[in-house]
Amino acid sequence: MSVDARYFANLFAASDDPWAFRTRWYEKRKRDLIMASLPKQFYERIFEPACANGELSAALAERCSELVCHDLDATAVSLARQRLAHLPGVQVEQGHLPGDWPGGSFDLIVLGEIGYYLDPAQWLQVIEQAVASLNADGALLACHWLHPIDGCPQDGRQVHALLEQRLPLYRVLRHEEADFLLEYWSCQPSVIDLDETCP
């Protein structure tokens, strides 16, 4: 992680919801858009690094058998564990990217609001790790704020530009607004199960 861990520690020391995930309409709407952008109804195993206090994680847990969450900050991990305690198949651990990558393979990796906290070399390592741990029909969802953030080595456009350059996947969805960019990339050119949709 390029941004110092104290940055996040200070945020969570001041509030248990420093980005107002629970209260801001912008965050709720973006979360709903992320969930609506997932073309599959169900994923076996999902990895969500930078889970913060677990608001998006709670929605993801409803769509999978197993959810693996990470966050760099110990307070965030504790809050996420409390938020997700009632949901089966959820594991929340303290970890940072690119160094702490979970074992096993995933059907979906969700990289939300994390890329600009990493320098380009670290972000490229995350991209490589993600590709290496996706199942044959796996997918990656990325969503990032597009405006510059003080102290961050990249902005959202740079983060997504590197995804476009380095991901050997098919982009099946792109949603851009003035404030954020949301993309879904798949190992397969189509995410529709033709056996379920065709007569």
From TrEMBL:
- Give start and end of each Methyltransferase domain: 47-138
* InterPro entries, per the entry: Methyltransf_25, SAM-dependent_MTases_sf
Organism domain of life = Bacteria
Q: What is the name attached to this protein's record?
A: Methyltransferase domain-containing protein
The organism is Pseudomonas putida
